[in-house]
């Protein structure tokens, strides 16, 4: 790699590159192609930049630490620490974790439209076999038109996003508690589709909050 990636705090710092060539060659299959993910992603190389890298041979795990940025086509993961593993079939999995007040970051383009799904959480687990992302603790997921215009935004303790089915769920938790939301309930802002309300016989909404959440929303 001959370029630098933005650090999560917005600044740019060259990363330690020793040993990255061998690691990237072993990880190039990360984020296996699936039905509704950006199809061009499967042809793109995996690039990882970090301050440090280590390899756990016993657990077959690559560990990157320090302002880590992993990219493969339109897929981006940023975190303080990223661990990558591969199963016997060659599918690979990434876990991004951040500490203190930092949050990990994830982004992926939806196939065939100029929209992205992005989000933040303390921990982000990405399943490359099933194109399934799980954001854990202080999680927020957004649907963007382009890279800036927020159409939907969901806050929850745990949010899952299924890239194959373009479907996501959110669950409440104490980490979402705030003065106006003491029980940490899921909160969402959903923009109308096509500028108007969907017909009653239309397709179901893709947002599916936890069934355990009941009662009147806190004001």
UniProtKB/TrEMBL annotation:
<keyword id="KW-0813">Transport</keyword>
<comment type="subunit">
    <text>Component of the lipopolysaccharide transport and assembly complex.</text>
</comment>
<dbReference type="InterPro" id="IPR014340">
    <property type="entry name" value="LptA"/>
</dbReference>
<keyword id="KW-0574">Periplasm</keyword>
<dbReference type="Pfam" id="PF03968">
    <property type="entry name" value="LptD_N"/>
</dbReference>
<keyword id="KW-0732">Signal</keyword>
<protein>
    <recommendedName>
        <fullName>Lipopolysaccharide export system protein LptA</fullName>
    </recommendedName>
</protein>
<comment type="function">
    <text>Involved in the assembly of lipopolysaccharide (LPS). Required for the translocation of LPS from the inner membrane to the outer membrane.</text>
</comment>
<feature type="domain" description="Organic solvent tolerance-like N-terminal">
    <location>
        <begin position="47"/>
        <end position="166"/>
    </location>
</feature>
<dbReference type="InterPro" id="IPR052037">
    <property type="entry name" value="LPS_export_LptA"/>
</dbReference>
<feature type="compositionally biased region" description="Polar residues">
    <location>
        <begin position="207"/>
        <end position="219"/>
    </location>
</feature>
<dbReference type="InterPro" id="IPR005653">
    <property type="entry name" value="OstA-like_N"/>
</dbReference>
<feature type="region of interest" description="Disordered">
    <location>
        <begin position="172"/>
        <end position="219"/>
    </location>
</feature>
<comment type="similarity">
    <text>Belongs to the LptA family.</text>
</comment>
């Amino acid at each position: 790699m001959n370029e630098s990636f933005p650090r999560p705090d917005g600044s740019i710092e060259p990363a330690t590159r020793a040993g990255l060539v061998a690691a990237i060659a072993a990880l190039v299959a990360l984020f296996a192609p699936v039905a509704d993910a950006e199809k061009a992603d499967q042809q793109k190389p995996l690039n990882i930049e970090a301050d440090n890298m280590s390899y756990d041979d016993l657990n077959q795990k690559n560990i990157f630490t320090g302002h880590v940025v992993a990219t493969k086509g339109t897929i981006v993961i940023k975190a303080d620490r990223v661990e990558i593993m591969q199963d016997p079939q060659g599918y690979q999995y990434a876990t991004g974790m951040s500490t203190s007040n930092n949050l990990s970051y994830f982004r992926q383009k939806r196939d065939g439209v100029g929209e992205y799904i992005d989000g933040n959480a303390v921990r982000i687990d990405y399943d490359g076999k099933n194109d399934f992302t799980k954001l854990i603790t202080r999680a927020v997921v957004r649907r963007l038109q382009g890279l800036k215009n927020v159409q939907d935004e969901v806050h929850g303790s745990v949010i899952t996003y299924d890239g194959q089915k373009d479907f996501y769920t959110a669950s409440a938790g104490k980490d979402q508690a705030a003065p106006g939301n003491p029980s940490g309930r899921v909160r969402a802002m959903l923009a109308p589709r096509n500028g108007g309300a969907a017909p009653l016989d239309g397709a179901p909404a893709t947002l599916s909050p936890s069934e355990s959440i009941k009662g009147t929303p806190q004001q």
